Amino acid sequence: MDFHLSEDDLMIKETAREFAEKRLIPNALHYDEEDGAPRELFDEIAKLGYMGMMLPEQYGGLGLSVVSFCGALEEFCAASAGVGITLSVQNSLCNEIIHKFGSDFLKDKYLAKMAIGMIGSYCVTEPNAGTDVAAIATQAADKGDHYLINGTKTFVTNGGFAGIFIVFAATDTSVGNKGISCFAVDAATPGISVGAKEKKCGMRASDTREISFIDVKVPKENLIGELGAGFKMALTILNSGRIGVSFQAIGIARAALEESIKYSKVRKQFKQPIANFQAIQFKLAEMATMIDAGKLLAYRAATLKDEGKPFMREASMAKLFCSQMANKVVNEAVQIHGGYGYMKEYPVERYFRDARVTELYEGTTEAQKITIARDLLKD
């Protein structure tokens, strides 16, 4: 398979890197310590077009390719993975599900607003339904001219400042996953309760909450796609999300490598920089090789999506490899830094915590293996 980054792709990537170096890197530790980045930051990011990167220009988006988006996402995540995941959820999940499956009414109602800063939250996970999406207990009862939603969603990214929730709920409990539907729910709708920020190990710059829906009235026209098609849509869109998480993992790993190279050149032991020691050189070489391998897998998936070709297996392979790779790389980065790598004053400590969740959300490592194996063994 042949693909490359065009001049436009590289320009967008470089522009994102310049913004990240100026606005995110100096504040990344503060965002981590404060359990979230300020809403004003995302307003600034939206003004630059990053909240609607892949949306068509008719909806106020930039109309960029998946490859261009992923390059920019890597740069954001290298600076602050918690801020970067907001861009990933917005572009890969929330914008995409409305654009791909929503009616013209929903596209006109929401996409232009989302392109300029209305932030979306993707509400699938529940206390007793994670990887097993079919087990969701949230229900949407048909009340004639509207649906009434009741249930609780957990680990909702962007939950504290979302303007729209993409909610998956059961509309017919008698037919299993074929009875799950998807709705666009305005955050200001009465009956929505936003919980406190989750106290997380890592990715603390990302706003993560529990969202409860108690007799939330949703107009019939806010149904996304066909009734009962929610499960299939969720799996389809999660393939895109997995590409995003792959580049998030790449960004974290790349930042850890860059810090390790810099540190190894200035840290001296036995009267010389530790970069002179073969043990350190071997670590750096393996880290760089794993990152490049991850990029090839992830860009392959992104390119296939741009070309309109099937990319489910490739997205899962990229997510599987990149998430594991990131955890291995940041572990080595901490090792290279020694005791200092365990201290908050050095960013590798944050990378170490942030990387762990990449093996959990958008489908666990085990779920990716199941997806890949099933695709390999299908008739």
Write up this protein.
With 379 residues, this protein is of the alpha+beta class. The protein folds into three domains: 7-115, Orthogonal Bundle (Butyryl-Coa Dehydrogenase, subunit A, domain 1), CATH 1.10.540.10; 120-228, Beta Barrel (Butyryl-CoA Dehydrogenase, subunit A, domain 2), CATH 2.40.110; 231-377, Up-down Bundle (Butyryl-CoA Dehydrogenase, subunit A, domain 3), CATH 1.20.140. It contains eleven helices and ten strands. It has helices at residues 7-24, 28-33, 39-47, 66-79, 81-101, 104-115, 230-266, 278-306, 312-337, 348-356, 365-377; strands at residues 120-123, 139-142, 146-157, 164-170, 180-186, 192-194, 208-219, 223-224, 268-269, 272-273. The strands form three sheets. Strands 1-4-5-8 form a four-stranded mixed beta sheet, with helices on one face. A four-stranded antiparallel beta sheet has the order 2-3-7-6, with helices on one face. A two-stranded antiparallel ribbon has the order 9-10. A hairpin with a 3-residue loop joins β2 and β3 (146-157). α7 runs antiparallel to α8 (278-306) and α8 (278-306) packs antiparallel against α9 (312-337).
